[in-house]
């Protein structure tokens, strides 16, 4: 009878240890697993390429072509629950040249119905006419 209890105790201890290990593995969150939602325009558009990262409200703009024009991400943030009221608008300019990326950092309002709408255009200078616009992208600012 003593052997039965010793064997069962060892089995139960092993099972409990395994359960704790599995529970720890399932509930441990590492910084690498933090949610990052990325919204991007078409990657090879003549105007350029842009991505919005909801984790830290940044927009990256890449100039695809050596055409002498800058790539500009034109954006606005709106409240979908409040009649699509525009909360902020702006532009992120990349005048660094072909193959270069520029990052613009923002601090957008958070909320489950706050979204960003953006597209990329090519411009001859900071205030030139918009050329070769990409399709607009809409993304959740809070990252869904």
Instruction: Report the CATH architecture of the largest domain.
Output: Sandwich
CATH superfamily of the largest domain: Immunoglobulins
The description of the largest β-sheet is:
4 strands, antiparallel
Quote the distance from N terminus to C terminus.
58 Å
Helix proportion of residues, in percent?
10-25%
Number of domains: 2
Strand content: 35-45%
Which strand order spans the largest sheet, edge to edge or round the barrel? 1-2-3-6
Task: Walk me through this protein's architecture.
It is built from 1 helix and 8 strands. It is an alpha+beta fold and 144 residues long. The protein folds into 2 domains: 2-32; 38-140, Immunoglobulins (Immunoglobulin-like, Sandwich). It has a 4-stranded antiparallel sheet, with no helix packed on it. A 4-stranded antiparallel sheet has the order 5-4-7-8, with no helix packed on it. A hairpin with a 4-residue loop joins strand 2 and strand 3. The longest helix has 26 residues, at 2-27.
Produce the secondary structure layout:
Elements: H1 2-27, E1 38-40, E2 49-53, E3 58-62, E4 70-79, E5 85-94, E6 101-105, E7 114-123, E8 137-140
Antiparallel strand pairs: 1-2, 2-3, 3-6, 4-5, 4-7, 7-8
């Amino acid at each position: 009878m003593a052997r039965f209890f010793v064997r069962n105790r060892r089995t139960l201890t092993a099972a409990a240890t395994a359960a704790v290990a599995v529970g720890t593995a399932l509930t441990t969150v590492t910084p690498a697993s933090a949610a990052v939602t990325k919204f991007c325009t078409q990657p090879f558009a003549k105007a350029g390429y842009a991505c919005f990262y909801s984790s830290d409200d940044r927009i990256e703009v890449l100039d695809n072509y050596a055409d002498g024009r800058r790539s500009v991400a034109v954006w606005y943030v709106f409240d979908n629950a409040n009649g699509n009221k525009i909360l902020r608008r702006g532009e992120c300019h990349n005048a660094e040249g072909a193959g270069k990326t520029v990052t613009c950092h923002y601090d957008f309002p958070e909320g489950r119905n706050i979204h960003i709408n953006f597209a990329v255009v090519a411009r001859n200078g900071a205030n030139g006419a918009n050329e070769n616009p990409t399709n607009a992208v809409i993304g959740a600012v809070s990252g869904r």
